[in-house]
């Protein structure tokens, strides 16, 4: 009986250690440019965006692993306009003619910039394959990344011709954005060991987010796609 009990305890400890060895913790950062695929205003441009968080992987063998985690993510877009482009033809000289040298329209604004940023909590689900072996290894991964909408912020900055400037940050209260949203991603890159228990990896990543909401003022639904393209990097241990 004692021998059987000892055998069961030994097997349990061995299985527990093997399971622990298959789990890897880590941190990950995704630096990217984000833009709307079909913007309402063509002048909107790509914006520098970020995703950063903690992750956990379960490694089936040398080549295959699945992982998840939790991260903060944002994306957005911005619009900028020179003050001269905000003017219109009201340069009347007071004598029935037009003098182009007379400032017109928004004569006080030298520069306008509007930044829209949307903030999320992300819970990615990822499948990874790597070539295995020692030294530098290649990997490819893909997955889903459900995102919980947190808050949106719009920042408006004005530079005036008199040298002063002003700015304001506000939330778009006219839209009710869907709380749960979905994105998909794929990535490939290289990884290598740093010491006995740490692995560094990096590579290009592309992610597409289906952004959904509803306008409370205009009473219509909003569905648009945002693209994120950049470089992911992380450490596992």
Radius of gyration: 26 Å
DSSP, total strands: 12
Unreliable spans? 7-19, 89-94
Pattern of helices and strands: HEEEEEEEEEEEE
Helix content: under 10%
**What share of residues are in beta strands?**
over 45%
- Give the distance, in angstroms, between the N- and C-terminal Cα atoms: 40 Å
By CATH, the architecture is named Beta Barrel
What is the SS-derived class? Answer: mainly beta
CATH topology: Porin
Rounded mean pLDDT is 82
Shape: elongated
Give a brief rundown of this model.
With 237 residues, the protein is mainly β.
Task: Show the helix and strand layout.
Blueprint: H1 2-22, E1 23-36, E2 45-59, E3 64-82, E4 109-122, E5 125-130, E6 137-144, E7 147-160, E8 165-170, E9 175-177, E10 180-193, E11 199-215, E12 220-236
Antiparallel strand pairs: 1-2, 1-12, 2-3, 3-4, 3-5, 4-7, 5-6, 6-10, 7-8, 7-10, 9-11, 10-11, 11-12
Description:
The protein has 237 residues and is mainly β. Strands 1, 2, 3, 4, 5, 6, 7, 8, 9, 10, 11 and 12 form a twelve-stranded antiparallel β-sheet that branches.
Task: Give me some keywords for this one.
9% helix; mainly beta
